[in-house]
Design goal:
By secondary structure, the chain is α+β, with helices and mostly antiparallel strands. The chain is about 45% helix and about 25% strand. The relative contact order is 0.08.
């Protein structure tokens, strides 16, 4: 298996070199064998995305050796297979499907390359079907941490269990009003961010529709400490005590009040006690390399029509509050 994966990685790298020169994708379009590959060859923008993705993959693979290189090759083979299967399902939406997948993959490969290889792989749940008159599709991708330097079992179980739960909820049941024509769907992807060499932020982006007046969607985040294999709550990033929470409440309140002027939200959500409770929830925290992005999904601090709110805080304002031994310490 290791030889097969290494050979696959080598073929990808070799194929990328002539593609750049000829302006096509990273593979020979004369040998395009399926609808996805033919679409990539036909649409210049997708060909460019394919070249960029292959370049990012090649740059990362060139830095790796041994188990890390094998792991990356295996993950890339899985990604390509899932791309082909999912994007070919709807002929009319192939281009949009590929555009979204390439954007995420390129970004994640670049993040993974920035520091010690974190052994993060992408795993899919994909299915389509019909129950009564309800047609449905599930396209959920979630991460798995495969490193052996720490125990990531609890983190991986959370991601896998949540994806399976979303799959179950997105699959119609006999009592789901199957006598009415409907089209249900659930889509989930993830983006990786690297706030420090010791940590990875996973941001799960999801959107689903299962009947009703409108769909549901948003972003939920998890900060993973690569040293311990555990998820980290805000208390694990900030120094002991509530000084951080008081300062965060002040910053977020002031920012949301400004946003509410043009995009009205729930005034009671800005009550100090309510906001403090929300700010203890790690799912709102998208820790990035130079800043914290606090994400408030629909209904968190405003109505569905208002959409999501985001508060951006540069680390220059927060770093004095960080734990000296925490995952974001420098």
């Amino acid at each position: 298996m290791k030889r097969l994966l290494a050979a696959t990685a080598l073929l990808v790298l070799m194929a990328a070199m002539p593609a750049v020169a000829q302006g096509g994708p990273s593979f020979d379009c004369a040998k395009a064998s399926n609808a996805v590959e033919r679409s990539i060859c036909k649409i210049p923008e997708l060909a460019k995305d394919d070249r960029e993705m292959t370049s990012a993959y090649a740059a990362l693979a060139a830095k790796l050796g041994g188990p890390a290189k094998d792991h990356l090759a295996k993950d890339q083979v899985r990604w390509i297979g899932n791309r082909n299967r999912a994007c070919a399902a709807d002929v009319d939406a192939i281009a949009d499907c590929l555009k979204a997948r390439y954007a995420t993959r390129i970004a994640n490969l670049k993040v993974i390359a920035d520091g010690v290889y974190p052994f993060v792989s992408e795993h899919p749940i994909y299915k389509v079907g019909k129950v009564g008159k309800i047609s449905y599709s599930i396209d959920a991708r979630y991460p798995q941490f495969d490193g052996t330097t720490a125990d990531f079992a609890a983190v991986n179980r959370t991601f896998a269990d949540d994806a399976k739960k979303s799959d179950e909820e997105g699959t119609p049941k006999p009592d789901s009003g199957v006598d009415r024509e409907q089209a249900w769907s659930y889509e989930q992807s993830f983006a990786l961010y690297r706030p420090s060499g010791n940590a990875i932020t996973v941001a799960l982006d999801f959107y689903g529709f299962s009947g009703g007046a409108h769909g549901f969607g948003g972003t939920v985040c998890m900060l993973v400490d690569l040293r311990t294999g555990k998820s980290v709550e805000p208390d694990g990033v900030f120094a002991p005590g509530d000084a951080w929470l008081k300062q965060m409440v002040g910053i977020v309140t002031a920012d949301l009040k400004k946003q509410f002027v043009k995009n009205p939200g729930f005034d009671d959500a800005l009550e100090p006690a309510s906001l403090a409770k929300m700010l203890r929830d790690p799912s709102h925290y998208r820790w990035r390399v130079d800043r914290l992005e606090l994400i408030f999904n629909a209904y968190d601090v405003g109505p569905y029509s208002a959409g999501a709110y985001e508060v951006v805080i540069p680390y220059s304002r927060l770093r004095p509050l960080f734990r000296s031994d925490g995952p974001l310490a420098r």
